[in-house]
Design goal:
The structure is a single chain. The protein is an all-alpha fold and 152 residues long. Helix 1 (2-38) runs antiparallel to helix 4 (121-146) and helix 3 (85-114) packs antiparallel against helix 4. The protein is built from four helices and no strands. The protein is elongated and about 55 Å long. The protein is 84% helix and 0% strand.
Length: 152
């Protein structure tokens, strides 16, 4: 039994590291997002703001990509390894919620990498903020269902 515990720790300990790294990138993304929110007015040819928007776009794409191509996949594998049918079913529902927010993030990225027109940045940031709130909540629940629940 001790050997099985050690094996599980070795096998899924790497998932914890992936999640920790990913959650750190979430924190960096949020800091970048809030720096843009601090600015009340956006004008054209504001190079400082344009740079911050591009930085936010890069962090956003990196974060979303890591979730889809690394973290969620690892979480699903962990749920399958523990034969957690109920957790996997709920995780698929959460994934649908997360996936809907991906479109908003990608649209934001595509729009602001293609333009220096910041006239609609305020409402776009608001929409993105709502999507990120939904996404983070769903991701946290998925982590709790498929990783934290199996830690012991």
């Amino acid at each position: 039994m001790l050997e099985n515990c050690k094996s599980a720790r070795e096998r899924w300990g790497g998932v914890s590291e992936i999640i920790d790294r990913w959650l750190q990138s979430r924190q960096t993304l949020l800091v970048s997002f809030y720096h843009l929110l601090e600015k009340k007015e956006f004008s054209e040819r504001d190079l400082d703001t344009e740079g911050k928007v591009r930085q936010l776009c890069q962090l956003l794409v990196d974060y979303v990509s890591a979730g889809h191509f690394e973290v969620y996949e690892q979480l699903m594998r962990e749920g399958q390894a523990f034969d957690d049918k109920q957790g996997l079913q709920k995780a698929h529902e959460l994934y649908r919620d997360i996936d809907a927010t991906t479109d908003i993030a990608v649209d934001f990225n595509d729009k602001y990498l293609e333009t220096d027109d910041l006239s609609s940045l305020d409402p776009d940031l608001s929409q993105l903020g709502e999507a990120l709130e939904t996404r983070f909540s769903s991701e946290d629940r998925m982590i709790a269902l498929l990783h934290t629940a199996h830690k012991n």
